[in-house]
Amino acid sequence: MSVLPCPRGAHRDWPLLLLFFKIVDHPPDPAHRTGDRSRFDFDRDELASLLEGEPRYRVDQVWDGLYRQAVDPADMTNLPKDLRQHLDGILRPALGLLTESVSDSGDTVKWLWSLSDGRQVETVLMVYPDRVTACVSSQAGCAMGCGFCATGQGGFDRHLTAGEIVEQVVRAVRRGRQAGRRVSNVVFMGMGEPLANYDRTWAAIRRLHDDVGIGARHITISTVGVVPGIERMAREDLPVNLAVSLHAANDKLRDELVPINRRYPLGALSQACARYLEAKGRRLSFEWALMDGVNDRTVDAAELAAYARPLRAHVNLIPLNPTPGYPAIGTPPHRVSTFAELVRSLGTNVTIRRNRGTDIDAACGQLRASLRPGPVPIAAPTAAAEAISGPAP
Ligand code: SF4
């Protein structure tokens, strides 16, 4: 399902496969059926096909091992050793660890992964007293071109497959277990615009819900305002939470900050959000990255409150994380409080979110940006439109 067919994974597996065929009588050359797909890209039927010749219950054992127990095939001790080796060779992981960073407080872990084609994505695990949240990427890079965002500054590489998304959560689940905690929530707030990669994102959500055991009400899709995607979500059967990265509540400023607004302006966005609320009855939240002198004025607070109130949206204020490619800085703490009080006084629920893990570049896209040499390109707004309307590769 990878958008960049690449035989490297299969080549890498040849020595192990040849060794295996000398020992065990399994169907020959399973690698030609796995292609460049990773272990979470297979559905049950495909897994059954890979396990041809094995008792039927093996499919359940392997599926349970991958999704519920979150273990590698090599560690599925309820399987015969030769089968474990066989599966380890053909069910390759999607994510190779490049770096792991842990915040000074120890409650935030960030991974930079390498994909099979060398693209890089990030995942963040955040541990709170009452919940553990995995923040996952849906694309390598992003085409939406929000200039203040490190991922947007780095441009678009490609969509992630459903398996690449699911594996981020599974890796976070494993890490959470090491600390005696269970990942309870998943948010699509990492790299990429999930609704520009709708089919794969939704396939991943379905798998997280059905097989990993994360309830729909504990899954949040964060979009910059891709209206057709919100409308599709309203027709789905899983009532996930919707978060919109708003950042401005008048079209002139939002056109600048969030270029997709030129295609789906605030009026259309508000209507799509209203339809989603009506269909799903879930709480809507607006994310607002407070930028000093840009969107933290009194008039911005008034516009935000007026926009959020009819939708009964909850506003999350987050001082902008510094990025190398954008001159504005985050609003200072005392003015964040003033802004929040003003919005609240105008009848809108608001929470100030602290920046987690800025000491480890834990804001979206920052770690990849910090490792990428040379100047950071800015994605053109037209690329955003292509990513939304173009056919899935
Ligand atoms: S803010 Fe979100 S949508 Fe905008 S460029 Fe960054 S990752 Fe993409």
Tell me what the structure shows.
This protein has 2 domains: 39-90, Orthogonal Bundle (DNA polymerase, domain 1), CATH 1.10.150; 94-379, Alpha-Beta Barrel (TIM Barrel), CATH 3.20.20.70. It is built from 15 helices and 12 strands. The chain has 393 residues and is an alpha/beta fold. Residues 1-32 and 360-393 have low confidence and may be disordered. The structure holds iron/sulfur cluster.
Give the strand content: 15-25%
The first-level CATH class name of the largest domain: Alpha Beta
Going by helix content, strand content and strand pairing, the class is alpha/beta
Supply the number of helical segments.
15
Sequence of secondary-structure elements: HHHHHEEEEEHEHEHEHEHHEHEHEHH
- As for the number of domains, it is 2
Low-confidence stretches are: 1-32, 360-393
Largest sheet: 10 strands, mixed
Strand tally:
12
Q: Averaging pLDDT over every residue, what do you get? A: 84
Here the CATH topology of the largest domain equals TIM Barrel
Bound ligands, named by name, code or SMILES: iron/sulfur cluster
Helical content (DSSP H or I, runs of 4+): 25-40%
Please state the CA-atom Rg, rounded to the nearest Å.
22 Å
Summarize the structure.
This protein is of the alpha/beta class. The chain is 39% helix and 16% strand.
Spell out the blueprint of helices and strands.
Blueprint: H1 8-23, H2 31-34, H3 44-50, H4 57-67, H5 81-90, E1 96-102, E2 108-114, E3 120-127, E4 132-135, E5 139-141, H6 150-154, E6 156-159, H7 162-178, E7 185-188, H8 198-212, E8 219-223, H9 227-235, E9 241-245, H10 251-257, H11 266-280, E10 284-290, H12 298-308, E11 314-319, H13 333-345, E12 350-352, H14 366-371, H15 381-389
Parallel strand pairs: 4-7, 7-8, 8-9, 9-10, 10-11, 11-12
Antiparallel strand pairs: 1-2, 2-3, 3-4, 5-6
Helix pairs in contact: 1-5, 7-8, 9-11, 12-13
The structure holds iron/sulfur cluster.
